[in-house]
Amino acid sequence: MSDATGLVQFLIGLSEIARGATSPSTLPVWQRELLCSSDRPHVTFTHPNKFQLACTKDDMIHSLFFTTIDISALRKIVPIHLQRCTTFEVLTACLCRCRAIALQPYPEEEMPIIWPVNALKMFNPPLPVGYYGNVLGFLAAICIARDLCNKPLGYALELVMKAKSDVTKLGYIGSVSNLMTLKVRLHFTAIRAYMVSDVTRAGFNAVDFGWGKAAYGGSGKCVVGVSHYIAYTNNKGESGIVVSMCLSSGVMDRFAKELNSMLAQGKNDEALLEHKLPTLSKL
To answer: How high is the pLDDT of residue 80?
Structure first.
């Protein structure tokens, strides 16, 4: 019915009424027909859409906390021409590479990286203010395990940046809508797919029912094979991003070793960092 942006709109409207308003400051708009595909749907872009999120019965949910210092450290270990990448791009590249190394897949195995993109502001004419439907398009960066594991972080980063740039191209979102009309729905069926979902800027922290701003806003239940990026301030007052990660204990140990090695390299520290940066704990 809605994406994270639509959910935040509902929660803010509800909180306004809880604080005494007679109606939400932004009135909801239904109008689902605005996102209908064309009369003759035609897919004009390539949209990889057959992936499967794999897991085992031993997988456990862990949380990782990244500070701005951690993100800066990751930027330092990519080529200079890529260092102006966004936080999402470098963090996603880092996580998918560490995860691939930890899983120890077959060299020729596909390792898709998938993430939803909010297309609310990409329509021309724009969708009306107050529209709260699901306005997501899925992007995918495809690579094989050998390249992802053996090539430097910059390789994964360029894959993510290139895929992300596609969504800004004219007609991309319309092509997604046409694809879903022709194929009914997207199917995620490849073994090693990894999905990330960034809700750090969704606006959950703006919700106030009269008791103050929200202390937490994000996924209430972690989904296997999916990492959520959630804005968070720890008990030291440090602002950062909490990331959920679902892996078995042995795989998680390899993941943490590789991640800490990257962070240590970016901070010019020969010794591996302790697990507290980022924090590894059961969510």
So the answer is: 95
